[in-house]
């Protein structure tokens, strides 16, 4: 009951457009003022809430008084491993990115343990920076360009050359991460969640496409990530665009990835945009989704890619004349996946602050 | 309140594996025995329920006594217009098909009003047969191979050559249908719903593919039809399989329909199966759906199509080695769409028996 009410109070403050008072929080939650005050005191002591005192009236305005999420409370460590970079960010409870580290290097020659050890170095930098700022980390989440099971095992990451990698075990072996709650998920799924949350009150149904060396997608329907039967939805990079076309690392021919991956875009943006348009038209024909968000390396290239994509979508989508398809760049640019990863850590705190406070007390 | 309780009692009987007594229905619903008895009497008087008396014990067995849906109560009139046939069926509350009429004729030369007048003749036959058997019709639903809006307007049916057809108005002008509640929906969506309900307790997530002259799909996720933003999902017939391939009636090139429509299957089943496999692989890569149900004209052809489809799916689905994809023929064969249409009428009665009983009393 206390755990439920702690979450209720914390979420009421988090979702409030202004800083609610203790009294307003009592009204919004239906809890008594005494109960709310005790819970608020616990959340302030645990570093999750902060209380702004009313300022003396000076001049025309007056800063808002009341409760707010604490910017120096729990923070999330977002990590990403991709084919040609490693990255880490620290995001605080208010959603602000406090630290950000990126190391560019080709990961393909490295075995999984070696690549994750390198990632551990970047994560360690982020962790040191957070500690220097007094930001306690509530956990870490890793974005991987591959098929991830619910327990965090990477079944296949074709562009990294990984197969059946127990990523959580390898991460726990890294000193900088050993003591943190850890999770692992597909990078396009995490990026789609990052976009969904960055665009508060915005589009609730969209396709997020992440263009790196490989290409993945996250499908958001009515504000929820659609994961599919086994959590392996969104493999748009392996949708066939030219059935007898270029061979792909996955064993098939003519996969989108071979025409519109980052290297292919650099070589021939026109061909890449046409291939993307063909695959995106298939998605719109199948799912009747009206908004497509291009992220990763596509975000800065959108202007160059747009005409080719739009021409194919217009030509190949049966409903193109009846319902427009909107194409836009990801709000979070190339950081969407690691931001989404950090966000899953923070969501877990907002959903269950009691567990976080207990861990913090024990730690 | 009475309307809600009528629905509760009717659905409790409908979902019960055996024939529940009034007492058992009272326990299951939480309503008093007196309330249940009054509601049951109303449902019996309205023709929706029937009560079986216990039979005298003779020999080893004894027929079950208790409440059941009435086989001669409300029935649904399911209608379908497709490119080369018109059909109608009468389905009773127990799900049994009581009458079925099919007229084979090419509808493409006819204007919409003329085609629907022809459909009215088939519907009239079904209606007469139902009346001769004392089956009261609760309504009619029409399956159309095209894009249908929520109000029943057919925006486009490419293979019929229809555009912006006010189907409900044309249907209401037909004497055999004028006095019935009417609805119109996409044929693949209705067929997918028909399959979902025919396979009680079976697969809750699957792709239903309807192969006629055109090709449509219904996407069922966790027991719900996924309709998309505007209700126009499932246009798999216009997914591109060969970007520079055969021209399609929709204006694009290389649409699946041009390689795997009914006429193309007859001409070259190998080519059709490969094209189907390419498009289905795209669906599995995008949605991580493990079950594909082939209906319409595909159902009787499955044995011939299976090897080609499975070869392409195995080659082109990234997770093919990790998670099998099951391919099966539709349980309802070519009748799935009109059966699904009739079923929507019966669902409406089960969801709101009070409205049906009021209409019946007024009529």
From TrEMBL, chains A, B:
InterPro entries: ATPase_NBD, ROK, WH-like_DNA-bd_sf, WH_DNA-bd_sf. It comes from the Bacteria. It holds the Pfam family ROK. Gene3D superfamilies: 3.30.420.40, Winged helix-like DNA-binding domain superfamily/Winged helix DNA-binding domain. Belongs to the ROK (NagC/XylR) family. This is Transcriptional regulator.
């Amino acid at each position: 009951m206390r755990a439920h009410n702690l979450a209720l109070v914390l979420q009421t403050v988090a979702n409030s457009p202004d800083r609610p008072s203790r009294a307003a929080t009592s009204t919004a939650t239906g809890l008594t003022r005494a109960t709310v005050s005790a819970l608020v005191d616990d959340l302030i002591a645990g570093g999750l809430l902060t209380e702004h005192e009313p300022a003396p009236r000076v001049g025309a305005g007056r800063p808002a008084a009341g409760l707010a999420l604490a910017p120096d409370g729990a923070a999330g460590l977002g990590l990403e491993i991709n084919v040609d970079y490693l990255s880490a960010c620290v995001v605080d409870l208010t959603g602000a990115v406090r630290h950000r580290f990126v190391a560019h290097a080709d990961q393909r020659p490295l075995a999984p343990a070696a690549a994750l050890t390198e990632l551990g170095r970047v994560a360690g930098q982020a962790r040191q920076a957070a500690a220097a700022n007094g930001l306690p980390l509530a956990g870490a989440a890793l974005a991987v360009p591959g098929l991830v099971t619910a327990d965090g095992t990477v079944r296949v990451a074709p562009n990294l050359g990984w197969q059946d990698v127990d990523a959580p075990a390898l991460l726990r072996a890294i000193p900088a991460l050993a003591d943190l709650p850890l999770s692992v998920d597909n990078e396009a799924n995490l990026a789609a969640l990052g976009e969904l949350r960055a665009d508060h009150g915005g589009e609730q149904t969209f396709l997020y496409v992440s263009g790196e060396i490989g290409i993945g997608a996250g499908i958001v329907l009515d504000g929820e990530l659609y994961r599919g039967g086994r959590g392996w939805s969104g493999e748009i990079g392996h949708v066939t665009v030219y059935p007898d076309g270029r061979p792909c690392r996955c064993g098939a021919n003519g996969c989108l990835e071979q025409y519109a991956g980052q290297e292919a875009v650099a070589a021939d943006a026109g061909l890449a945009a046409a291939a993307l348009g063909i695959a995106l038209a298939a998605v719109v024909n199948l799912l009747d989704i009206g908004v497509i968000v291009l992220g990763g390396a596509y975000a800065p290239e959108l202007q160059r890619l747009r005409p080719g994509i739009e021409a194919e979508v217009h030509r190949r989508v049966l409903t193109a004349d009846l319902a427009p398809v909107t194409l836009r760049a990801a709000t979070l640019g190339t950081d969407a996946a690691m931001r989404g990863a950090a966000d899953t850590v923070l969501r877990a705190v907002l959903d269950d602050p009691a567990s976080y406070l207990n861990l913090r007390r024990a730690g």
